[in-house]
Amino acid sequence: MSDAPTPTDPQIYVDADACTVKAEVMRVGERHGLVMHFVANQWMRLDDSALVKRMIVPEGPDTADDWIADAITARGICITNDIPLTSRCLEKGARVLGQSSKPFDADSIGMALAMRDLNRHLHETLEIRGNNPPVDRKDRSAFLGALENMVQAARRAG
After folding, report:
1. Cα–Cα–Cα angle for 3, 8, 11, nearest 5°?
2. Entry pTM
3. DSSP codes, the chain
4. Which of 50, 108, 120, 130 has its CA 20 to 30 A from that of 9?
C-alpha cells in the first residue's frame, strides 16, 4: 500500500447498491492509498481498511446518488452505471467509470442519456425486460485495468 492519503489525492466514490466490482475498486484503491467511499442504502460487507468509508444513506430514490453528487469534487472518481449520476459528476469535473469498464466524459454522456431514455421507453411500451449478464474474470480484469488507468490519469492531472 502507498503512504497515507493526502488532501490532493483523488478519492473514489462507489454507487455501491448494485455494484459488482467492489473488490476490484478496493484492490486498486488500496494499491494507491486512496480513500474509497462506498455509498448504499443498506449495510455492505467490505474489507476492513482505514481507506474504506461506508456511507449508509436513507432508503429512497436517488439518495445514494445525491450523496455522491454532493460530495464528489473535480479530483474524484465515481464508479457507477447510473447515467444521471454520471452526468452530475461530470458537471463537477470528476472522472466517471462504468462497471463495464467504460469511461464516461463530456463527449459520451449525451449519447448515454439518449440511449437510457430510449431503453426506458422500449421497456415501458414493449415490456422488454433487461438482463445484465454476469461479470466474469475477463470483465473484472478489464475493469481493473480501466480503473488503474483512470487513477493514474487523475494523479498526473494533480
Report:
1. 80
2. 0.83
3. --SPP-TTS--EEEE-TT-S-HHHHHHHHHHHT--EEEEESS-------TTEEEEEPPSSTTHHHHHHHHH--TT-EEE-S-HHHHHHHHHTT-EEE-TTS-EE-HHHHHHHHHHHHHHHHHHHHH-----PPPP-HHHHHHHHHHHHHHHHHHHHH-
4. 108
Cell triple for residue 78? 465515481
- Amino acid at position 61, single letter: P
How far apart CA 34 and CA 2 sit, in angstroms, is 8
C-alpha cell at 93: 469535473
CATH of domain 12-104+138-157: 3.40.50
Query: 50-94: per-residue pLDDT in tens?
Result: 999 999 999 988 999 999 999 999 999 999 988 889 999 999 999
Of residues 50, 48, 49, 80, the one with CA closest to residue 65: 80
